């Protein structure tokens, strides 16, 4: 009987430990990325960047002309970027790219992250922004 109680306790602890570990894997993880596409348009030649600081719930980077920042909220792969802020320079050659980036980020509701990439998704699960991790 004592053996059965110990076994039951051990199994219960293992189940809770596994559940806690599963929840943690859904969090947006810190990393540095190069943005390669916005709405399936290749922007890799413009060297746009995205850096996630998970400890501060902060996304920062370069959007083609200006630096930007989002203070995000997330839970279970749902992502709310809120309102972003950026510097205010006008760059004739890259303004359209930057405008498309901010329009895309305004539609972001979720994310999909792997060891090598980050996709920011809209409410339909379509990729708004795709980025690859910098080694």
TrEMBL record:
Gene3D superfamilies: 2.40.128.270
DUF306 domain residues: 27-127
Swiss-Prot/TrEMBL keywords: Signal
Coiled coil: none
Signal as UniProt keyword: yes
Database matches in PROSITE patterns: PROKAR_LIPOPROTEIN
Protein name, UniProt field: META domain-containing protein
Domain of life: Bacteria
